[in-house]
Amino acid sequence: MTLLQKLRRKLFPPREVIEGYENQELVETIFRKTIAYDPDGDWPLVVGVNSVLDFGGGAGLHYKLARKQSPDIRWAVVETPAMARRARQLATNRLMFFSDIHEAADWLGEVELMHSNGAIQYVPDAIETIRTLCATRPAAMAWHRVPISDADAKAKAEVQTSFLSDNGPGSLPTSKDKLVKYARNWIPAESFLTVHQGYRLAERGPDPREHGTQQFRFVRH
Q1: CA 156 to CA 176: how far, in whole Å?
Q2: Spatial CA neighbour of 212 closest among 183, 180, 186
Q3: Which of 26-35, 159-168, 211-220 has the least mean pLDDT?
Q4: Domain locations in the chain?
């Protein structure tokens, strides 16, 4: 996006607003952008990993990068019901889409890695969802772009706004943009760490991809 386009978007934002991740127009935008997406580079996190449960993985954008270095990797995406239904058109014998965590884990059989990038803060009950993910007993859990609040703070919610064209990987030409609004939750640090029962915190630090968020890696005891 050029500087002029950014300035125009800031001065004259779209008037139309869509809400929530179940919106069909948002789902279709992410779906189409993922099909067109052609990532490059390597991904050390998935080297030597055979099975991944990708929580909030859209229409499989992370799988498209992982399979370039690990063609035989098996990948289960857990998404909203609307996204999972639409993305199943892209399913293969190594890539599947689910709206239920346990069903995804059952399909994988053994979960070597649970991966989630910028998703857990959008579910209604983040702590309970994390507890469910831990119950699938992945060998490792990698969290990226998690908004963490002070250790003694309570969970707080806010309304986040983005441009429709910014959702999903890469870019597609669009004649008319819209605003997208959804609830975003800040997760208390103490609750986030404590809920990982049976896991050791191996890495923690600021996530450079999004200001104010953190990244974590847990390893099963």
Answers
A1: 33
A2: 186
A3: 159-168
A4: 18-220
* Distance, CA of 103 to CA of 132 (rounded, Å): 12
In sequence order, the 6+-apart residues with CB closer than 8 A to the CB of 202 are 140, 217, 218, 219
Structure tokens at 13: 């934002």
Residue 211's φ and ψ, nearest 5 degrees, are -60, 135
Residue burial 20-41, b: 16+ Cβ < 10 Å; e: rest: ebebeebbebbbebbbebeeee
Express each pLDDT in 122-170 by its tens digit: 999 999 999 999 999 999 999 999 999 986 666 678 999 999 989 999 8
Query: Which CATH number is 18-220 given?
Result: 3.40.50.150
Closest CA to 57 of 84, 26, 92, 90: 84
Max CA distance (Å), the chain: 52
